[in-house]
Amino acid sequence: MQDELIKRACELLEDGTVDRVLGWSSGDFFYDITPTVFTSADEVRKRFVYNDFCGANLSKYLIAESQKDGKIAAFLKPCDTYSFNQLLTEHRINREKVYVIGIPCDGKVSVGTLNDAGIDGILSTERDGGDLVCTTVYGEKRIPFAEAQDERCINCKSRKHVVYDELIGEEGEVLDSHRFDEVEKLEAMTPEERFAFWQGELSRCIRCNACRNVCPACNCDLCVFDNPKSGVFSKAASNDFEDANFHIIRAFHVAGRCTDCGECSRVCPEHIPLHLLNRKLIKDINTLYGTYQAGETEGQMSPLSAFTEDGDAEPSIVQKGGIR
Amino acid sequence: MQMTKQTEEKWEPKIIAFCCNWCSYSGADLAGTNRLTYPANVKIIRVPCSCRINPSFVLRAFQRGADGVIICGCHPGDCHYSTGNYHTRRRMTLLFSLLDYLGIEKERTRVEWVSAAEGQRFVDVMDDFVAQVTKLGPCRRLEDLRCRTN
Amino acid sequence: MIVKVAEQKLPELLTAAAGVEKLYIPVDKSDKVSVFEEYAPGKTLSRKLNTLRSAKDFFFPQVQPMAKFRMEGKKIEVIDTREEPQDFIIFGVRACDVRSFDILDRVFLADPVDTYYESRRKHATIVSWACAEPSETCFCHSFGIDAAAPEGDARMWIAGGWIYLEDLTEKGAELLKALDLPALGADTSDEDAEKEVKAEQDRIHSIQEKLPLYSLKPADNRQKELEIFNSPVWKEFSDKCLGCGSCTFVCPTCQCFDIEDFNDGHTIERYRCWDSCMYKDFTMMAAGTPRKTQLERFRQRFMHKLVYYPIKNDGIYSCVGCGRCLRRCPIHMNIVKVMKALEEDAQCEKKN
Fold first, then answer.
1. Which end of chain A, N or C, is surrounded by fewer C-beta atoms within 10 Å?
2. Is residue B1 a part of any domain in this protein?
3. Which residues in chain A show pLDDT less than 70?
4. How far is it, in rounded angstroms, from Cα C199 to Cα B150?
């Protein structure tokens, strides 16, 4: 797959279709993948990679890139295309300046997940049937690929590219995922249990803002939490209220715009399951206002901008555990 | 000594009511002119429209020690700005659902539609909400201890 | 002197230490995260290589209340909220984190002395722990730190079913004495202990040699301040940076802070909290910020660690090679990549 991508990127750069290519490059290890803008075919041949560790969502980079001169080609995985579409809807990306190449994805791995499974000192990995074989300083270790993947990939919602100019590989389908199972489990708890769960998770937050800065939906020029005049400005969460406040406001701000790409949970250094907040809102929206997938089509109206005069549920519909 | 004093003192809930200028606030005013009484626990904050209420207003109220938050707006279809309360309806439904999901009981939050002519209804709604929150007891889950006065 | 205790005696050893002073040990929070927590019977020592957050939290916590102000009429009352901390032991600190204390000392204990930092620092006894299984992200070796012989007041090795303890300072010797190790079955006259520790150290070194970053050597940048400042690598790197603060907040040597006020309407609470040079409002002043672009902010972090700090501190780098930023950066940008790119850039310059 990687070779095919490199070949296509070089062609596009050499025939002048695009001036830049957005992809991934690696560093000292095979897994430390960084999103990278390539400006020449030579560079692409030298450093471009596409492997199981290319989980980073490239769409957010296109906000800045599409404001520059010239055209850029971007390799987007299925979930990246949802984010891309959502950003188009919000007029944050100049579509004319981006050449989208859809690429297939069968789930990505984070090195953190491998570390959590007790595999450390990793020097290289290789797919062997359904397993991921890791060569480490402490010998060879095996882990089923399904277990090595990020949570978001295990519960993948779609392998379909919702927008592209050309496609490499075959088109996937929208999947029947179990992504709301975890939400339902929380809903079934008592308020005390839920509170204890969330306090345990959110109180670990160090306010590094990684979740916010990686989120394609969080693209305000000045975030309310960075604005000293907003009344909620604070650099550190000095108590539990501020931990919760930050995450509630953030989840609510991206409600109806979050495509559930799962980047927030992937990047959280404290491993807080932030996607469970967003998924709750997605689930509620689906239940109350009809199935809605942000980013599915360009230009669709967000359920929080829309309303119906007679059909909307009254807020009293909220049950224990939220809308069930 | 301190302990006995605290236990003797009856706990009273603090309720923040955000009222729309055009309907509910006038409704409360009407209740006053008609000499109807509603619980003194309710502190009213006037807003131009119920959809002016940012979710962070609700959180701020809890941070500063509120035990319940009620939002009052015009009846659907009667919004002074045509559609404001339709937006409130969706937003607050989702917000209250999310809060309950985080462990802030749904009984502590409410949206009611009260028109300028419904002075009695305003009183009934407040009576009912105060009774409901009183039953739940104090809300400490989003309280910011730094904001306690003593 | 090295004392040897059977590994099964670890709970008793920890209980004994907790009886001497307040004791903090790394514990597993989940299968993913380990943190330093106050010891209580039943808590077990985490076997993870390192805690997610560094041990700098003990001396330089993320949020440090400083003072309170209260207004009454036209008078402002200033309330000093400082309290002298109790003596405490940090048990199981890795070699990299121990070295980070030295780096922080050079900042906070230099004139003018930071009293908040100092009061915590002088009440601490540090028991370090040699790394039995270093990871591929470890590069403490590059900064002259020996993971097999950590510094501190006392140090520990756990190998082959034994715990080996050695005192390094007076404070450490006092602690070991107070632990009453013979009561735990320690044999103070075991002559093999030293040999066994040496074997363990050799084993650790032989693993380190196999690690990919073993040969990484930081360049002496003290004479090249401007060259590096104007290097083209910053542009390329900062374009990718998301501008979050995870690298700075997990870093054991990052020391920037901001002072904020919280006003509850009656009282103002002044606190200082970690700041990150990656943030847009870093060093924000009334006239604005001197670093307006991500390039300038990104450059600041690495210039500080690799150039400015060494210039002011006899060539000592403000990095200990713990590898936390290598693991935590959402897009895997890190100090190793920067060091290598600068090196390459310097080589190119030389050729031209």
1. N
2. no
3. none
4. 61
Alpha carbons C251 and C325: distance in angstroms, whole number: 7
CA separation for the pair A247, A202 (Å, rounded):
8
Identify whether B61 is part of a domain.
yes
pLDDT at residue B6 tops 60: no
**Residue A123 amino acid letter:** L
Helix extents (H) in chain C: 10-20, 95-108, 115-122, 170-179, 192-210, 225-229, 233-240, 246-250, 294-303, 309-312, 324-328, 335-351
| Among chain B residues, CA nearest to C65 | B146
- Report the alpha-carbon angle A125-A128-A132, nearest 5: 45
Name the residue in chain A with its Cα closest to that of B54.
Answer: A249
Picking from C63, C213, C244, the nearest residue to A236 by CB comes out as C63
Sheet of C34-38: strand order equals C2-6, C162-167, C154-159, C124-129, C88-93, C22-28, C34-38
**Residue B4 neighbours by CB under 8 Å, 6+ apart:** none
CATH of the domain at B31: 3.40.50
How big is chain A, counted in residues? 324
pLDDT at residue B8 greater than cutoff 70: no
Q: What is the pLDDT of residue B3?
A: 42
Q: How many residues does chain C have?
A: 352
Closest approach of chain B CAs to the CA of C86, in angstroms? 24
Among all residues of chain C, which has the CA nearest to that of B146? C264
Residue pair C197/C157 in contact (Cβ under 8 Å)? The answer is yes
User: Does C253 have pLDDT greater than 80?
Assistant: yes
Beta bridge partners of B112: B72
pLDDT above 60 (res B1): no
Chain C residue numbers with beta carbons less than 8 Å from the beta carbon of B144 are: 264
- State the complex-level ipTM: 0.91
> Which structural domain, as residue segments, surrounds residue B117?
12-137
Task: Note whether residue B148 is domain-resident.
Answer: no
Residue C191 has pLDDT above 90, yes or no: no
Rounded CA-CA distance C30/C27 in Å is 9
SS3 B52: helix
Q: Calculate how close chain B gets to A56, using CA atoms only, in Å.
A: 28
pTM of the model: 0.92
pLDDT in the model for residue B7? 52
CA distance B144 to chain C (A): 9
Q: Cα-flanking dihedrals φ and ψ of residue A134, to 5°?
A: -110, 125
